[in-house]
Amino acid sequence: MRTVLARSLGITAYLAFIAGLGTVCVHLARHAGTHAIVLASPYLMPAQGERAPTLVERRQIEAAIVIEANLQDEVTIVPDAPDIALPVLAAQMDVSESADLATVKPSVRSISRTRARHAVRAVRTPAADVFGRSFGVMLMASR
Fold first, then answer.
1. Cα–Cα distance between 137 and 90 in angstroms, integer?
2. Kind and range of the H or E element at 4?
3. pLDDT tens, 123-135?
């Protein structure tokens, strides 16, 4: 008789706990739903039939405002025209380019390139190291 009474008391306590838990969940759902509706109402029900801007449109508007603020702060300086006539300036540039080309020694350049190519040799790294460095994985089992 005591086992039946203990079982019925245990089942009753379990059902009371489930009922209380269900009541708390319903109360919290109503409370959270009310707050969610209040927070979402400006976006779901616009005041005058116009829709609220999307996230992308808001970011574009904010970016345009920042760009306008930066443009207003900058001072534009327009350089003056050179005092030299254009044909004279072009002739001076041609002379300086020919002088630069005359000072370059091609044989010295080719020797330094070949020395540099032979001096530096690529170090071979195993694929496991490359994979581990690329993805941040330590591959201890591959060694």
1. 59
2. helix 2-44
3. 676 666 666 655 5
